[in-house]
Amino acid sequence: MKKRNLVKIGAIVTGVSLAVCGCGSAESAGNAGQSESQTQTAAGETTENSNGEMTTFTFSKISYPSVTLAEGQTPDDNAVLDYLRDNYQVDMKLAWQAEASEYNNKLSLNIASGGLPDIFYLKGDDYRTFVQLAQNGMLADLTDIYEDNISDTIKNIDASYGGRNFEPVTVDGRIMAVPAGNLDGQQDVLWLRKDWLDNLGLEVPKTVEDLEKVLTAFVYDDPDGNGIDDTIGLTVDATKPVGLYNHAFGLEPIFYSFNAYPSYWMKNDQGEIYYGSTAPEMKEALALLQDWYKKGLIDKQFATRIGSGETEAVFTSGQSGAYFGAVHANYVDAFTNNPDIELIAVNAPLDGSGKYNYVLPSPTASMLCISSECSDPAKALQIIGIGNDLYRGFDEKANKIFEEAGIAPSSNGRRAVFPQGAATFDYYNIIEKLGKAVKEQIDTGSYTEYDGITQYDKDQVDLAAGFADGSNRTEVSWKAYVYRYVASEILSDPAINPLEAAYYYATESSASIQSELDTLEQEMYLSIIIGEKDVDYFDEFVEKWNDIGGSTLLEEVKEAAK
Ligand SMILES: [Ca+2]
User: Fold this and answer.
1) Distance 205 CA to ligand 1 centre (A)
2) 334 CA → ligand 1 middle, Å
3) Helices (H), 308-454
């Protein structure tokens, strides 16, 4: 193992701050206009080594055991790898793969035994490992080669993040990985049965009080009109009542409407970092939820529904009228069970000043790292860009070959055989962007193609439009319609107020303390909401949280975020 001087975490964060303020190299890396004459990396154009020789890169990726591959296609021998070899003189050899749940462990073992693959995937939740690899000189420094070698597609995508995606991969001022950013537009929204609102003559709720009225009517006024007292208000996930960004069946938006930001490291008006779940604002939201539960507005059985799919079934079976989830969190079973179902997505409840608050996601979902032992990091960057263009379907010739080989156009079908696997690159605001195209198509009969639009995006427009005009009423087209038309539209609502957390990553003690803290916290939510404990138990929770390691984490986060 090559070792450089160990850089202290403070130094890393200095690099991070540089990227944030735009004075670091991240800014120029995100600027597509600065590309100089470079090896053309757009798919479909052959690049050759100056010596015409084959380059070999080993790689590791997530595996997809649930995907059935066509005969003759395996993760380490398939039409994609053949295409890369034949057209780009790169022999991609699968060093190892592991299921998502096992990937971090396998990577740790790989690091311990030495010999990292040339190109390897690293999950966003394994950020500490990335920092340690970068500090120990085990990653190729991409700072000076990124701009000239990454594809134009990824450059354009980078630009959409305004440098945000480079923040975590910039260590000590140097770019140490290719970031695959987390998309905006996946925050929780309120999903409601529009047909129930209409049946009862109710208005779309805006405030907490409005929502309480709607839930009360959903429970007590027979919204499904069958004369039986058989409906449920809000569906909640008992295994995790409160989660982070893009968490279905949680209660996050209720807390956000009280300006409480559970599970995030936030900064107060005095510039001090605190843990959102321990802030005094939490109590008001907890008191409200306890009251709602007592009044029967939250599913009375929710605490017992801990089996797989049980919570979702409460909504899809037609019993419940409301839940929180991202714009994509709609479930085809709801349509299968009731083809007449009508849903709407709403930015509610609003806070006291009319804002719909949410906390932005961690800037990086995952990354592709290049080992410092890699023989040609510049070429590795090129192949990452080429792989992405192929993955996104920008090369007609390749598409035909992949289709003939039976490589599914679906995400997981592709991820199973593409070397980049789960690392996907897309525009920061792609969900809103695609939603606008779908709206334009449905409202006017045509739409303007945006730069970098993929076949998948075009298919979504067609599916949603097909559902809207009645020519294609299937589960798949219903899903596209509800997600891309009904829900995505509210992402442009001016009431939306995205907030940045003060810090998104694990620190030194996270591995040993975090899970115990999380359990304590989730139990607190459950016991207070169902009234097993008084709201004042919250104060006891805060004390306990600090005692069993929360205060240590807070100090580490304050240090890391300096
Ligand atoms: Ca009923």
Assistant:
1) 21
2) 17
3) 310-316, 332-337, 377-391, 396-404, 411-415, 430-444
Whole-number Å distance between alpha carbons of 482 and 12: 43
Output 97-105 pairs: Cβ under 8 A, ≥24 positions apart. 97/60, 97/61, 97/62, 97/63, 97/421, 98/60, 98/62, 98/63, 99/62, 99/63, 99/65, 100/62, 100/422, 103/62, 104/129
Q: Which residues surround ligand 1, an ion (CB under 5 A)?
A: 222, 224, 226, 228, 230
Q: Is the pLDDT of residue 29 over 70?
A: no
Residue 321 Cα, ligand 1 centroid: separation in angstroms?
11
Average pLDDT, the chain: 90
DSSP conformational letter for 126: G
| 67-81 per-position pLDDT tens digit | 999 999 999 999 999
* CB-based contact 297:349 (threshold 8 Å): no
CA distance 325 to 187: 7
- How far is ligand 1, taken at its centre, from the CA of residue 219, in Å? 8
- Tell me which amino acid residue 7 is: V
Distance between CA atoms of residues 64 and 365, nearest Å:
18
Q: Is the pLDDT of residue 20 over 90?
A: no
CA atoms within 13 A on the CB side of 273: 20
Q: How far is the CA of 228 from the centre of ligand 1 (A)?
A: 4
Q: What is the pLDDT of residues 455-501, one digit of tens each?
A: 889 999 999 999 999 999 999 999 999 999 999 999 999 999 999 99
How much distance in Å is there from the Cα of 338 to the middle of ligand 1? 15
